Amino acid sequence: MNIKKSIVLRVRIVFLLVCLFACAIMYKIVQIQVLDGTKWKQISKERRIRYQPVPATRGNIYSDNESILATSLPFYRVAFDPAIAQTETFNAGIDSLAMLLSRFYKDQSPEHYRRKIKNARHAGRRYIRLNSRQINYQEKKLMAGWPIFREGKNKGGVIFEKVEKRFKPFGMLAERTIGFINEDKNGAGLEYSFNGDLAGTDGEALFERIAGGNKPIYDGTEVAPQNGYDIKTTIDINLQDVAENALYKALVEKNADYGCVILMEVKTGEIKAMANLGKTKGGYIEDYNYAVGNQGRTEPGSTFKLASMMALFEHSNVELTDTVDTGDGRYRIKNTTMTDVKIGGYGKLTTQEVFEKSSNIGIAKLIQDNFSDNPQAFVDYLHKFGLSSTLGFQMDGEARPYIKNASDKTWYGTTLTSMSIGYEMKLAPLQTLALYNAVANNGVKVQPIIVKEIRRADQVVQTFQTRVLNERIASEETIKKVRTMLEGVIQNGTAKNLRSADYKVAGKTGTARKVKDGKYVRLYSTSFAGYFPADNPKYSCIVIIDSPRGVNVYGGDVAAPVFKEVADKAYARDLAMHQPLRARVAPNKDSLPQVKAGSLDDLSLILNRIGVSNHSTATSDDEWVRVTPQMRSLKFEPNPVRGGQVPDVTGMTLRDALFILGNQHLKVSVEGTGKRVVKQSVQAGTEINKETKITIVLS
User: Fold this and answer.
1) pLDDT at 683
2) If you write DSSP's letter for every residue of 675-694 in order, what string do you get?
3) Which of 172, 290, 562, 685 could make an S-S bridge to 543, C-beta 3.0–4.6 Å?
């Protein structure tokens, strides 16, 4: 009995404690919900509602002719406040809206969208995201006319959340030069280097954090963002395309590791093309700016011989006609042997020929003979040429040149001769090109630029003018000598394949052995640097092809053809570079040209150009004419070509004759050699049938 009473007592005590605990919970609920409700609601509201940044629209990047290289396009996410619309408007439009959403997104049924919106409205939710897919501006305009949505944000509840994406209209063209910037503000190229101008200033606005996302609250306190500035570059998209295509073909053909091309205007330093391609598993892409950055900083090889010869001419009285004995192609310096490409050597060469043939031994001997007593003097000239300093290029990431001083611990007995042919130093391609550009510019070294203007809409905020880095890197006599040598490389030396009948090129090939694991291996960095037209330079250009494979892997075989393709296209596009028609001696009017027949327009143009008097009885409707001499002029008379009849083609050029006869559907055979038709087998005016054949005789 006592045990039973004890158990009952314990149960009653536990029950009482549970009741007291339940009462405490009820009291706490009442306290939170009623007594302290206002306080907690305010805290909740403060935590849900906060200011968030509103991104500014990023500025555009333009080419030199205002073509857009990069721009920000608006995209939108569609959200909805289902509680805003009036009941009548909502009920009348919900079915149609659900059907349109289903057809547009093609991911859910109309019933799914109708139920989703209605449930949110009944639950009093003020924000739902209808779909995570982003839509473009045209699609936004289309949706804005749908039922309920057409009432707008304040009456219909539709919310178009703007999201901007960077878009490059020319795709991969100049991709690394244009560059990128990520959410952590890291990046490369123009996007990164000019981010401070392009990014603008973000605004801010109140957003309420609710289920499904953040809903903007437009209470009048929002701060509008300040959109970014636009930048106008010096890039010519046509020349950029030419440079990239020529580079790509060479890299694929030679299975090279990477390559770059830079094309620059001589006087202004404006970069018109900068192409960089590196090998990846998926092919060649613009994954790094080898033209400017550290990965492209290499031993320049023979293109550096220009600097060596400039130092030589500045320091001594050596002339282009002086001779140096290069021997049998092997030259012992301290404990190393230097060789020339030609087996058996070049023997005795003039200074001009040493450069044209790119004789390592010839250059080394000339520098050794004149600077061995004071090697620092040679280095000082390199400093004077600006080769030991960065160019202050507008894009971040320019590599720092490496030029040894004679006091360095790594200066050995062979360093002077090694440096003379482009080893034991490192330069980025743009830095080498700046030297060649200075020579083309008569000794004036200008800073390369790639951005010309910073603008807001049509208003120019900042202009970047051509900046002179060195008024004269060398004497006028030295510049004249090295320009002669650079032209000789194309006329008589290692780059004869660059000869052109239309314009002259000046430049230098380069082939430098690569270092791997501290040792030189049989892989090469090939290059060609130069300018054109040589007699009045407009452009300078450098081409680098790294580690080409196969046969013929020297600079003249690999890099020079890329230079030529770029130069040919640039020359063809730039009419200002074309040589004007040379002034002709006034013709002897008593000795008239032997013109017989042809096109009225062509003959009139030619005769007027060479100053021969001519007049015509033909009208503008007469396409073909015959020519007869009269006193000291030529007379044009109609030579009609009638359908169905054999025309008179005597006196015409073969090209004109074949054109006319072919249009008459005649079967033509040609006899003899010469420039003009002297006889035709079928008389002019004869009716033409399917069997008609004609033979024309040339003389």
Assistant:
1) 85
2) SBEEEESS-TTPBP-TT-EE
3) 562
Would you say 288 and 593 are in contact if contact means Cβ atoms under 8 Å apart? no
Q: Which residue has the tokens 């002669």?
A: 484
- Residue 516 half-sphere exposure, CB side, CA atoms within 13 Å? 8
Tokens coding 243: 């440079």
Rounded CA-CA distance 63/230 in Å is 11
* Burial degree of 350 (CB within 10 A; 0-12, 13-18, 19+): middle
For 118, the token pair is: 């209605």
- Residue 273, judged by CB atoms within 10 A of its CB (0-12, 13-18, 19+), counts as buried
Distance of CA 196 to the CA centre of its chain: 22
Under a CB-based contact definition with an 8 Å cutoff, are residues 296 and 426 in contact? no
Q: Which option is the CATH number for 238-402+416-577: 3.40.50.720, 3.30.70.1060, 3.40.50.300, 3.40.710.10? A: 3.40.710.10
Q: From edge to edge, which strands make up the β-sheet containing 519-532?
A: 283-285, 271-280, 258-265, 539-546, 519-532, 506-516
Q: What are phi and psi of 655, to 5 degrees?
A: -60, -45
Burial environment of residue 502 by CB neighbours within 10 A (0 to 12, 13 to 18, 19 or more): exposed
Is there a contact between 545 and 277 (Cβ–Cβ < 8 Å)?
A: no
Q: List for the chain the helix, strand, coil content (%; round to 5).
A: 35, 25, 35
DSSP H or E stretch at residue 231: strand 230-233
Closest among 205, 203, 207 to 79, alpha carbons compared: 207
Taking Cα atoms as reference points, which of 101, 100, 126, 98 lies closest to residue 114? 98
* Calpha distance 660→666 (Å, rounded): 9
For residues 620, 625, 629, 635, the Cα torsion angle rounded to the nearest 10 degrees is: -10
- Reported CATH class of domain 590-698: alpha beta
Rounded CA separation 554/512 (Å): 9
| DSSP-derived pairing of the beta strands 667-671 and 633-638 | unpaired
Q: What is the dihedral of CA 603, 607, 608, 614, to 10 degrees?
A: -90
Nearest to 310 by CA among 355, 248, 362: 355
Q: Are strands 693-698 and 667-671 parallel, antiparallel or unpaired?
A: parallel
Beta bridge partners of 252: none
Series of mean pLDDT values for 10-residue runs along the chain (699 residues)? 71 79 78 63 53 77 93 88 89 92 92 92 85 88 92 87 86 92 86 93 64 54 79 96 96 96 98 96 92 96 97 96 94 91 93 96 96 96 97 96 95 95 96 98 98 92 95 97 96 90 94 83 92 96 95 90 95 75 44 74 68 64 76 75 85 82 81 82 84 83
pLDDT value of position 547: 95
Which one-letter amino acid corresponds to residue 628? T
d(CA 461, CA 454): 5
Which of the following CATH numbers is that of domain 55-233: 3.40.1500.20, 3.40.50.300, 3.90.1310.10, 1.10.760.10? Answer: 3.90.1310.10
What is the rounded distance in angstroms from the CA atom of residue 254 to the CA atom of residue 562?
A: 12
Q: Check residue 659 and give its pLDDT.
A: 78
Helix (H, G, I), strand (E, B) or coil at 587: coil
Nearest-angstrom CA–CA distance, 426 and 62: 33
| Alpha carbons 309 and 88: distance in angstroms, whole number | 89
- Cα pseudo-dihedral 649, 652, 653, 657, rounded to 10: -20
